[in-house]
Design goal:
By secondary structure, the chain is α/β, with parallel strands linked by helices. The chain has two domains: 176 residues, Rossmann fold, CATH 3.40.50.1970; 162 residues, Dehydroquinate synthase-like, alpha domain (Up-down Bundle). It has 13 helices and twelve strands. Helix 6 packs across helix 8. The longest helix has 21 residues. It binds nicotinamide-adenine-dinucleotide (NAD). Nicotinamide-adenine-dinucleotide binds next to helix 2, helix 4, helix 5, strand 8 and helix 6.
């Protein structure tokens, strides 16, 4: 086992000291101790995973759980966003009931962001709540989805419409799981790292550019360092505003997601979440320029790092014809609406976010205008 990096997220709702995010090769070996701490009388562990992740890494996880004298109650779902439904959530809860999971037991989400979101919501609901340890296996889930305690399923009308806050007992980030992650999924996760860098850290942005492409050749140690930096940035934001109540706190993490989610929905989820967020980040840079907040050079900086990381930046395709109308309709369903306006996160510069309140048409007009002359 290499050195473990530990980041404590001091959210009081998750216990007096909050919860730890533990990062490092082999850190999954700590799973039993985190389960015992969260659920001292546990006999069983409800494990949610997806078919792909479980085929690659399930046996190793089960061995760790069994060796600790805990009985796994496993539920494996089809991979992908299509599983983030009420029906699949119900299937997980049914499996936990059938497996005899008790209120004193605990759960593990072992997979990407879909499994993390679903598993977290299942743990939140099961017998009014059992503790969960998040074991994120995709880069996106490692750097973003697993850390903040937001859990949800999708609704036909919009993504993540039905959800809750369920702060994990612990998050275990083992970079060895990334060895089996397809390259486009790795790139998708990198989009969330770019988001954290644009919001909070020019240094992190430089590091991402320096080490791109993250795909084939990245040294595991380098990738682990970038993951740890990203998690630390997100954790600090979550800790300052766990329930997204501050006017410029956790809401900032929606940078790139207003338009990103709309494009993801308009593509019928054919476009990966991270790839859609990349387009949303380009949109944010363009809008920031059109609003007179940011210098034109911001657009070039954003597109350069995204391109280097293998992410899409061709926003034009989503700003014309029927696709534009689908994006417009999806924006109309955005959860961050307040009256006719949407909360939109813009940038004055890298590391200098700005919260705006804008109507859907104003957003789309500004994004279209923001590219002029750049
Ligand atoms: N809760 C939050 O704060 C938050 C934040 C960001 C994203 N999300 C959610 O996360 C989801 C996207 O996450 P994602 O990109 O991880 O999606 P995902 O869970 O669908 O995983 C992507 C694909 O990678 C595969 N995979 C995962 N780990 C693997 C591994 N180690 N080896 C091989 N294959 C592996 C999965 O089987 C899947 O096919 C979206 O639903 C999004 O809404 C939530």
């Amino acid at each position: 086992m290499t050195a473990i990096v530990s980041i404590q997220v001091p959210v009081p709702q998750a216990g007096p000291r909050g919860y730890p995010v533990r990062l490092g090769s082999g850190v999954v070996a700590e799973l039993p101790s985190h389960l015992r701490r969260a659920a001292p009388r546990a006999r069983r562990v409800g494990i949610l995973s997806d078919e792909t992740v479980f085929a690659h890494h399930g046996d190793a996880l089960l061995a760790i759980v069994r060796d600790a004298g805990l009985e796994p109650v496993v539920h494996v779902i089809p991979p992908g966003e299509a599983s983030k439904t009420a029906a699949v959530l119900g299937g997980c809860l049914d499996a936990w009931v059938a497996g005899g999971l008790a209120r004193s037991d605990a759960a593990v989400a072992f997979g990407g962001g879909v499994v993390g979101d679903l598993g977290g919501l299942a743990a939140h609901l099961y017998m009014r709540g059992i503790p969960i340890v998040q074991c994120p296996t995709s880069l996106l889930a490692q750097v973003d989805a697993s850390t903040g305690g937001k859990v949800a399923i999708d609704h036909g009308a919009a993504k993540n419409l039905i959800g809750a806050f369920e702060f994990p007992a612990a998050v275990l980030v083992d970079p060895r799981w990334l060895a089996t992650l397809p390259a486009h999924e790795l790139a998708g996760g990198a989009a969330e790292m770019v988001k954290h860098a644009l919001l909070f850290s020019p240094e992190h942005l430089d590091a991402l550019l320096r080490h791109a492409p993250l795909v084939a050749d990245t040294e595991p140690e380098v990738l682990a360092g970038l993951v740890a930096s990203s998690v630390a940035l997100k954790a600090a934001c979550v800790a300052a505003d766990p329930f997204e109540r501050a006017p410029a706190g956790r809401v900032l993490l929606n940078l790139g997601h207003t338009v990103g989610h709309a494009i993801e929905a308009a593509s019928d989820y054919a476009l990966g979440h991270g790839q859609a967020v990349a387009l949303g980040l380009v949109a944010a840079a363009r809008l920031s320029r059109a609003q007179g907040l940011a210098a034109p050079a911001l657009i070039g900086r954003v597109t350069a790092v995204l391109t280097a990381l293998g992410l899409p930046t061709d926003l034009e395709a989503w700003l014309v014809g029927p696709r534009l109308e689908r994006v417009r309709a999806a924006l109309g369903h955005d959860k961050k609406r307040s009256g006719d306006a949407l909360t939109y996160i813009a940038l004055r510069d890298v590391g200098a976010p700005q919260v705006l309140s804008l109507g859907v048409d104003a957003i789309l007009t500004a994004i279209a205008a923001g590219d002029a002359g750049s």
